[in-house]
Amino acid sequence: xxxxxxxxxxxPRQAVHDLRxxxxxxxxxxxxxxxxxxxxxxxxxxxxxxxxxxVAKTLxxxxxxxxxxxxxxxxxxxxxxxxxxxxxxxxxxQRTGEFRFREGPLFTxxxxxxxxxxxxxxxQAALLEAMEERQVSVDGQSRPLPTPxxxxxxxxxxxxxxxxPLPEAQLDRFLFKLVVGYPSAExxxxxxxxxxxxxxxHQLSSVRRVAGRPISRPPVSRSTRCGSTxxxxxxxxxxxxxxxxxxxxxxxxxxxxxxxxxxxxRRGRGCRAAPS
Length: 276
Description:
33% helix, 11 helices, globular, alpha/beta
């Protein structure tokens, strides 16, 4: 039983607030980004984080995984990374004289695809089936991925030399694109104070595992369902040329509306999460 389905007497909103408190022990600020991560995890979506180096993109994902008792793996996407390095491959066991499949880092609960736009499209495309169908196909055999499964990809908005922009087909697989902003002056002072007190961001032993009861997919009103389509159609066009929102925009808006009440931060904390 994973952290999201472990029974407890707390309400879903209280469980999310407890998660925020645990993450705040390590990460200063970034409440809006955290709201997007939690919402995506609840509705089986994926997140693309964009921000300059040093704004706690990796640390935030790692801390969330620790607080929810999720298995976490990180892959640094480089120009020489091959699809088999992510998915896994079939190897020959000389000791037994048999072939066996060795799972890659993709077989986890939360996968951090660091700097995803620095690897060639062939390796980027290796994530398409996994993100959409929660499985991978190797040697004609489909292998399911663990549940829950969340891909958190990061990319740097600067230094585009030698990068491979994500194709639209892969951008559709992300529920949110979250812009991770630079911390304020007060937040920077708080970060320095924690470092001066001896906080090691790589040691997450102080993070307590929080768990929420099973959260069903709450229904949305008819006005919300009908409002999702008109909000996306004005910028969509079947004709060639530049397009606005993509076909899955309405579905993404509907999914994002489901956990809104459960993940809404306390007063004074904003959420800037928006569908990609």
